[in-house]
Design a protein that fits this description.
By secondary structure, the protein is of the alpha/beta class. Helices cover 38% and strands 21% of the residues. The termini are far apart.
Length: 355
């Protein structure tokens, strides 16, 4: 039976979220096959390679893939669980803080898997929440705009470049809007912890007319066509995928320090079929699944058995302490406190406005 995807839209009953649903029939053609339900923030087209790999290893399992925003994944799992119902069999999200909160608050169950004991300690919280990807925050630049000079490679150089170029780059730099982008907010919160002079960077971007976006694609599109010359703290996996298709997009891993985030996978406590959720999580952690992710999604593998340039092991061997992975731990929940979150956003806005 040929492999195909059915796309549909569903208005979710637990709030305003709208999910894009992709249904992958069992590879063995059985219409009565058991179905694995995935809630994920990874765009459905990007997930196809992983799902095809999983179904090669598990031909008797169909997959229902619900593409949701990170907050909606959290809200649905909490709402469906609290209503004494069933929820997804696995949740995969880039909102590290919300995923850890699900685990910490009892909305996820322990999953003891073949790779659990060998998974990096920073990437495994109590065999319940697993970091499955290794994705740096990078500077992205328009290569033709830097034919005669190297792009900034540190935050100090970034500020110096903006001040030296002045009007020539005004309105032509971009970063995430931390009020609308969960990844952007997390990168900013880590910047505040890692770099004492981070507010001079934010102030310099504000003075240079920085443009703010909630998505990586909006920034990368404008870098690629030259409307923008620089992007700050852009998710490296999306940047690498874009650069693989467009020779005008360049990437720099900041030499002073490079924050690395991860997408976290977990099996919800109220999963309808937790055994299927664990099977998918096991595949995602396996050398085969991680190699597919590194090769086809341009996302660095965490599994220590996977070799090649696009792996956490190789990146850490080459860059050492420059890389600062965000550990999977309750410490991620600090900025879920609304007072702390509001205070950081206010300081961000004030710095952008030169106050």
């Amino acid at each position: 039976m040929p492999f195909f995807v059915l796309i549909a839209f569903l208005l979710v009953g637990f709030g305003p979220a709208q999910a894009e649903i992709a249904v992958f029939p069992a590879a063995n053609g059985d219409p009565a096959a058991r179905t694995l339900t995935v809630y994920s923030s990874l765009d459905a087209p990007l997930a196809v390679a992983m799902i095809k790999g999983f179904q090669r290893a598990n031909p008797a399992i169909a997959v229902r893939y619900e593409d949701l925003q990170t907050v909606d994944i959290y809200d649905r799992i909490v709402a469906e669980t609290d209503a004494q119902g069933e929820t997804a069999d696995i949740a995969f999200s880039s909102a590290m803080d919300l995923q850890v909160k699900l685990a910490n608050d009892g909305y996820a169950q322990q999953s003891d898997l073949p790779m659990s004991a060998r998974w990096p300690r920073w990437a495994n919280w109590r065999n319940t929440a697993y970091a499955l990807t290794f994705e740096p925050a990078v500077f992205v630049y328009h290569k033709p705009s830097f034919r005669d000079a190297a792009p900034p490679a540190t935050r100090r150089q970034f500020v110096d470049f903006l001040e030296a170029q002045g009007d020539a780059v005004f309105g032509r730099i971009a970063t995430y809007d931390i009020e609308r982008s969960g990844v952007g907010f997390m990168f900013m919160s880590r910047d505040q912890e890692q770099f004492d002079d981070i507010w001079s960077v934010i102030g310099a971007m504000g003075a240079a007319g920085v443009k703010l976006y909630s998505t990586s694609s909006a920034i990368l599109e404008r870098i690629a066509d030259g409307r923008f010359v620089l992007g700050y703290n852009i998710l490296g996996s999306y940047a690498a995928d874009w650069a693989s298709r467009d020779p005008d997009v360049g990437i720099v891993l900041p030499r002073d320090y490079t924050v690395v985030m991860s997408r976290i996978g977990l099996v919800p406590a109220a999963a309808r079929a937790p055994d299927l959720g664990r099977r998918y999580l096991e595949y995602f952690m396996s050398a085969e699944g991680q190699a597919v992710m590194a090769r086809e999604l341009q996302i660095a593998a965490v599994n220590p058995d996977v070799s090649g340039e696009n792996t956490a092991n190789t990146m850490q061997a080459n860059l050492g302490a420059q890389l600062r992975p965000v550990p999977v731990s309750p410490g991620l929940m600090v900025y879920l406190d609304q007072v702390k979150r509001t205070r950081l956003i206010k300081r961000w806005n004030d710095a952008l406005r030169g106050r």
